[in-house]
Amino acid sequence: MKILAVEEHLLNPRGGGELSFRTLLTELSRNHVLCAVGKRVSDPFQANFPVLGFSVFEIPRTHMLNKYLVFRQVEHQVAKYIERISPDILITQQDFAAPSVKVACRAGIPSIVFMRNYEHFCLCSDPARECSRHCSACYGYGKYNPYRYCVDAVFAYEKHWLAQASLLVSNSTYMKHIVEDWLGIDSAVVYPFIRTLPIMPHKPEYITFINPKKHKGVEIVLRLAELLPDRAFMVVGHAPDSRELRVLPNITCVPWVDEISGIYSRTRILLVPSRWPEPFGRVCAEAAQFGIPCIASRAGGIPEAVGDGGILINARDDPDDWLRAIETLDSEAVYQELSRNARHHAENFTLGRIIESFQSQVRERLGIQL
């Protein structure tokens, strides 16, 4: 079978959604002819897409001043590659999904869309909150807002063409409910495609926090480090302003690494104090492979990633609840129980099992054997 995959950041992955998509493409390329399309990067040296054994084509760089016009540009480029490649099926996600589905529909090609985030229907990335759904008045018309023109047309376009996709795939049960609520579309649930990480000698010494951004809860981590001066914290990733992190002697700042196993091998507890409803909690599922308990916000799809291998916090802005959870894990008996639970829960996210789940959904819903 010939597969065309379309993803904006294919050549320069920015997060777990792109990594999951890339992992799927690698697996599909073992048994199918696969061609992929992604946005051209400004600096060729930024492209960290490895040699995977399938063709990768570039769409000229798009500028998000007016997203509606970007859709038209993507339509033109995807149509060109469909004509050239003649694929049997199209797989896509994120900002390039709706225009790709439109072109696939007009070419009579079945399409699959992964729903991993909120860009198709919510400007504020918080669709679970109470709102009037007057999107054009929600986010303002600031200079750097890509939705400031034609916002209503953008979301009407998204909703119409996503509904025409042959199959929508949500990355959590939480996300399935959000998609149904906002778009009125039923979607299959397939958890993210996560590779089994190489296990290194485990020397757990740190309370670790990954991706120090405000919406990820960096302020809570800073407060906890202040309140627990005798505990060692590790903060992984780039922070726009890391001075506050570096001023505390018990925080070790580590840049992004190619192999995350080295980080987990030194982690005793993973903190995930997210302030927004993440569709899934990829780092929780990764840490579970190492038997690392998580202390995480009860928000979005994070509880599905944690399972019973950690502690969920309801009042995510209250440092006292986080302190109590850390103290609870000081009990070796409790820690070992949650560690065992985490390892057991990680078995639900093994790559082979998730690939099989995806193939099963495609077979049952579309009658296609991938």
UniProtKB/TrEMBL annotation:
Single Gene Ontology MF annotation: glycosyltransferase activity
Entry keyword set: Glycosyltransferase, Transferase
Database matches in Gene3D superfamilies: Glycogen Phosphorylase B
A Pfam family that the UniProt record links to this protein: Glyco_trans_1_4
Claim: Glycosyltransferase is one of the keywords in the record: yes
Keyword Transmembrane helix: no
PANTHER family cross-referenced by the UniProt entry: D-INOSITOL 3-PHOSPHATE GLYCOSYLTRANSFERASE, GLYCOSYLTRANSFERASE
Name by which UniProt lists this protein: Glycosyltransferase
Organism listed in the record: hydrocarbon metagenome
Lineage: unclassified sequences, metagenomes, ecological metagenomes
